[in-house]
Amino acid sequence: MDLHSQIILDEYREALPVFECMQTEVQAKLRDALDRNGIIVTTIETRIKTEESLAGKLALKGAKYTSLSDITDILGGRIVTFYTDDVDRIAAIAEQLFDIDWDNSVDKRKLHQIDSFGYNSLHYICRLPGYEYRFELQLRTTLQHAWASINHDTGYKSGVEIPREYIRRINRLAGLLEMADDEFSRIRIEINDYRRRVTQLVQNGKLDDVLLDGDTFRSYLQARPLDALNKRIAAINQAEIQEAPLIRYLRVLKALGCKTLGDVSRLIRKYEEDAYRLARHQLGNTDLDIISSAVGLQNICIVCILSTGGGKIGLIRLFDTLNGHNSQNEALAELTYQQASKMQIE
């Protein structure tokens, strides 16, 4: 190593505590910003180039650097996201957190020709306010990261000549990964649009236009359609209502023939009075002072099953669906059947 490179290496040793402080601050700023903006990433990592790695870099091209501050990747950061549009969101955050050296930053996603594919990543050269040295921040998707790893592992860019057959197959793979990246982002956008449409339809009361599924049922439950029934049931014993998840009733409602949210709404209206009567019979001779918010919907399902001829077998299936198959469900179904029979619900 020549004297010039040795001087830069000495400067690196002296500046190492500064880079360690930068690393801590960069990690903290990025994690805090991602959390505040609700962006989920697969990886956020930073590293400081080792002395051995820097020495190798200087041995190859030390003459191009006048000092350590000319080397922009002593500290490097990488954020790997699920979706391509999140790369742009995080880029906007980075632009707010750091001073960007635009002349030395590069968006490799824009460098390909119309008929070429390959390594895609956004590389920002950044500076933390108050620090002399710059650092590199790479932003890419999981599939872009996979492609970078494949590139590295195959030695595609190593300078060793590779037969055209393999280059063609590598390029085909790159094209597939790029298409998959775009499709994942497109699907997420369409799903979010669908959820917004469903929410609007539910708010406007157009429940017959909304097919029953996990997303739509959650949206429907946000309107708390069972609150009135649950409060009536709670008043029997002046009980406290304890919140419980109702999404597990989705399979039950589908088994009862509900295909839209309109079907669910009609089912509730049709059987809520009998569901209340059943609860009054269940709780009237007890001192139970805490009830589940699922009691109203469960009793609606019970009276629907019995009113449509499902009998004890139908009740066993109900409790198996809600609680998992176990021996207690048969006894619970027998007790419920007897309670309902006294009210002539069967």
Describe the structure.
By secondary structure, the chain is α/β, with parallel strands linked by helices. The protein folds into two domains: 3-158, Beta Polymerase, domain 2 (2-Layer Sandwich), CATH 3.30.460.10; 226-342, no CATH class. It has helices at 3-36, 51-61, 84-97, 142-154, 164-203, 214-221, 227-237, 250-255, 261-283, 295-307, 311-323, 328-342; strands spanning 41-48, 75-81, 99-100, 106-107, 122-127, 134-141, 240-242, 290-292. Strands 1, 2, 3, 4, 5 and 6 form a six-stranded mixed β-sheet that branches. A hairpin with a 6-residue loop joins strand 5 and strand 6 (134-141). Helix 1 (3-36) crosses helix 2 (51-61) and helix 9 (261-283) packs across helix 10. The longest helix is centred in the middle third of the chain and has 40 residues, at 164-203.
User: What name does CATH use for the topology of the largest domain?
Assistant: Beta Polymerase, domain 2
Strand tally: 8
Helix-strand pattern, N to C?
HEHEHEEEEHHHHEHHEHHH
CATH homologous superfamily grouping of the largest domain: Beta Polymerase, domain 2
Beta-strand portion reads 5-15%
| Largest sheet, strands/sense/barrel | 6 strands, mixed
Which percent bin holds the helix content? 55-70%
CATH architecture heading of the largest domain = 2-Layer Sandwich
